[in-house]
């Protein structure tokens, strides 16, 4: 895995990032005692998201079946500023059979996720090895389909939780930095989509961590120029259909929550009482990354450290690395 600059390579703290745990409702039961039960502080709104990568799975198994699933979090989030995330939703997925042109499918709507019949229908029938899901709580931008995550450009998917502080003040300067050839692709009015196209502008195709670092560096530089003390708050997921990257960072050093799941063999060892047939069906590289844990079983969920990122799948023994913004 490429680090973000030599400084990141030198300062990386080695710690294994482990594959997925369980998709049963018991393993993903409510998590009242996991992490903090206090809302995240800082900006007024937040979202919840999850990203799955590994053995092909029906979306319903992750979106609906866990007791504290993402759909449950759309009404009853525990670790965020807002408990309700009802300003729209979206899912994006790559084909399980590798067919088509390699670009992901996207379904987005402004209705709340918890009562959308089309979402439930799709989730019960779509099987994918890599998919994103996002429930939205607007930070002020309009509630419209083009503002719902995930965002897509070519083979890339992107979703974000957090905000650019005082985005309206910074928006013009940030948009002017987007490649003119890409500018017409921006369909909505969110800071998240501008962040995406800045990352594409800064070389997402060649160096994902570097492109995201340069995007973050620009936001912080422009924020400083406009007198915004803590301009960036983000957890971001991005994928090209082969790999999944997840980032956790904020200028203030108090980032939105982000967790990754443990290895299936770890769960088997810690919880032999579980029904484990399903664990034999997923690969060692299978993992979930989530804004909020889907359960409370000991050893299943691990917090991604502040100012770090990871890539899935990772080589054996590979770790997450520090994330350091770079001024472009």
What does this structure look like?
The protein has 328 residues and is α+β, with helices and mostly antiparallel strands. The chain has a domain at 14-160 and 236-315: Glutamine Phosphoribosylpyrophosphate, subunit 1, domain 1. 23% of the residues lie in helices and 23% in strands. It has a 7-stranded antiparallel sheet. It has a 6-stranded antiparallel sheet with strand order 5-6-7-8-12-13. Residues 1-45 have low confidence and may be disordered.
List keywords for this structure.
13 strands; seven-stranded antiparallel beta sheet; alpha+beta; 23% strand; Glutamine Phosphoribosylpyrophosphate, subunit 1, domain 1
Q: Approximately how much helix is present in the residues?
A: 10-25%
SSE order, as H and E?
Answer: HEHHEEHEEEHHHHEEEHEEEE
Number of helices: 9
The CATH architecture of the domain at 14-160 and 236-315 would be 4-Layer Sandwich
Shape: globular
Please state the structural category: alpha+beta
CA-CA gap between termini: 21 Å
């Amino acid at each position: 895995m490429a680090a973000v600059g030599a400084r990141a390579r030198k300062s990386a703290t080695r710690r294994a990032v482990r594959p997925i745990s369980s998709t049963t409702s018991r393993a993903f039961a409510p998590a009242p005692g996991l992490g903090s039960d206090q809302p995240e502080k800082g900006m007024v709104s937040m979202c919840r998201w999850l990203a799955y990568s590994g053995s092909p799975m029906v979306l319903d198994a992750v979106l609906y079946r866990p007791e504290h699933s993402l759909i449950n979090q759309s009404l009853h989030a525990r670790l965020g500023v807002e408990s309700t995330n009802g300003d729209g939703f979206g899912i994006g997925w790559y084909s399980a059979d590798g067919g088509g042109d390699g670009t992901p499918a996207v379904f987005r709507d402004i209705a709340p996720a918890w009562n959308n019949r089309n979402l439930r229908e799709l989730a019960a029938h779509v099987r994918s090895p890599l998919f994103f899901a996002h429930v939205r709580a607007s930070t002020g931008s309009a509630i419209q389909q083009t503002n719902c995550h995930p965002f897509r450009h070519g083979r890339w998917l992107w979703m974000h939780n957090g905000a650019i502080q005082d985005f309206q003040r910074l928006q013009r300067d940030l948009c002017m930095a987007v490649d003119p050839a890409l500018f017409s692709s921006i369909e909505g009015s969110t800071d998240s989509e501008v962040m995406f196209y800045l990352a594409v502008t800064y070389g997402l195709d060649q160096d994902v961590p570097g492109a995201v670092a340069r995007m973050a560096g620009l936001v912080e530089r422009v924020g400083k120029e406009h007198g915004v003390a803590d301009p960036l708050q983000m957890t971001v997921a991005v994928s090209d259909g082969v790999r999944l990257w997840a980032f956790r960072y904020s200028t203030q050093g108090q980032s939105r929550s982000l967790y990754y799941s443990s290895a299936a063999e770890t769960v088997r060892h810690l919880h032999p009482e579980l029904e484990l047939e399903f664990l034999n069906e997923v690969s060692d590289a299978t993992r979930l990354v989530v804004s909020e844990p889907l359960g409370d079983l000991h050893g299943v969920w691990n917090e991604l450290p502040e100012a770090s990122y990871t890539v899935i799948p990772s080589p054996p023994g590979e770790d997450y690395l520090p994330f350091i913004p770079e001024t472009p």
